[in-house]
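Two records follow; treat each independently.
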Amino acid sequence: MTAAGDHLSSLDAFRGLAIAGMILVNNPGNWNAVPESLTHANWDGCTLADVVFPFFIFIVGVALPFAFARRIGRGQERGALYGRIVRRTIILTALGIVLNAAASWPDLAATRIPGVLQRIAIVYLAASLLMLHASAAWRAVLAFALFVAHWAILTLVPFGGHGAIVTHDVNLAAYLDRIVFGTHMLTPVGDPEGLLGTLPAIGTALVGTLAGEWMRTAIDERRRVAGLVFGGMTALAAGLAWATVWPLNKPLWSGSYALFTAGLAAITFAACYMLIDVERTRAWAKPLVWLGVNPLAIYFASELVRNVIDREIGGAAAIKVRVFWDMIGPALDRFGAEWASFAFALLTLGVWTAVAGLLHWRGIRLRV
């Protein structure tokens, strides 16, 4: 056996799985009739919808050792790498602001500042620089330190006339977001992609870099799978144990949540690697690979289109009204409102999978 190369089909499929999850979660036909597993926990807890974003953050980390090894192997110097990292960070942030502006149009003064792409940008910047300059051992220590520091800041630091309190409406993370972003947040209380939660999200990506480096350097396929599963089970168990005193919480991105979801991500990646790159059973994964080859482009386009089809254009009914409320909803009403709503999400996923397949067929890779 030899070490893994600079590219794994299973990584594309795993990334595509995360994008598919994002599309399903963000595109129900009826927001008042969404299957419970596809709705985010209101505060403490973790649903299927809550693992999608940390999976993608984990994948950002996994991909870094492969990407940097490939570029360094081509003779690219550190200065060029730094330039690419900064450029990509700026582009991702700008694209996130564009999506937020599209969501608030025409009231641009109300544009939300934080967002999914903005958090990915900051996480990518930090994890990339640490990947280049810190050993695996130091990255593990830093990830743990970020989880603990985040917990300590939220649970030990008083703020705004309050003690060190952590509730849905009163917590230091939301308080800081209100100071920095004012009303430019997802909710009046705070933002799930706010400032403090970015610290443990960076930790999630750093755990991903450890998994990616293991996959690149372990010389035996069975060792790669066993290492991912063992590491994943360890992180999952640690997250669940910590959750007894520091609950799983996506809006805060609590350390227990970061460990638990990173563990699940590692185990899921191990399964993808075993099936696709070891057993070579790839036919079932082709749609996921299509999505995973152009993940950010597909995510950006799907979110932009989602905002467009929700709006009336020229006085005509919104496209979503005509497709879901006038067609899909009535046709599937006998199966229940949740199934009809889920059917629209599946249709949306099918459309974007077809677009991704076309791009893959044409050999088009849209990079930022």
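The next record belongs to a different protein.
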Amino acid sequence: MTANEAIDFAKESGALVVDIRFTDLFGAWHHFSLPIEQLGQDMFDEGLGFDGSSIRGFQTINVSDMLLFPDPSSAFMDPFFEIATVVFIADIRDPITGQRYTRDPRYIAQKAEAYLKSTGLADTAFFGPEAEFYIFNDVQYSNGPDQAFYSIDSDEASWNAGRNEVPNLGHKMRLKGGYFPTPPNDQLQDVRTEMMLTLMDAGIEVEVQHHEVGGAGQAEIDLRFDTLLTMADKIQKYKYIIKNVAFQNGLTVTFMPKPVFKDNGSGMHTHMSL
């Protein structure tokens, strides 16, 4: 989409709010919102200011001013806000020089794509990630001067086979026993399907969703391959959508690599084609 097409898209979608998002060095999304009246060509041409010193790993306080330039091709409607909101993913620039910010992960991805092409090894690189995560029913943690603990729970987990509830219907998963079982052992089919359909509504092509090996609620939803920057943006949307669909269903999701002792860890191995 061009800037004009993105503006038309927002209006046709009934957006009342514009949400601007960018990624920090640690991979987390940040955002702020503006009324739809602020959405115009000047937003794409002149950018929007923010405090770079408040973002870990970015700027010091004496050079904190930074600019965000929304990418019109990244526009999508947020599937979770009650008020209709159009989202743009932004590039970061220096307000004095106008140059791209070297610590902007999107810029790093774009430079990597350009470098690959310059080597003559390939014209295009495609990336197809398989992202795994755990869906838990309860998470508790604390770290204080007198104690430290964490506690996780999954209705599917083997440790709940003897849980004192009436009725306890069994159908729990043994450790490492979660690969492709059918319901009633697989209790997460509907929520994974909701995640898949929400991803598709946000313009992300999904190949498959299924229960993974981890018996305490591990899941995987695979995306159709795409180029590096586009797929990086999609993975940010992926994590956002997965976590929020779970939250709306009274569940919680983690992409931590090893949340359950003795059970499978969660990876994101990636297919690459040059």
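Discussion point: The mean pLDDT is 95. How would you locate this feature using only the token line?
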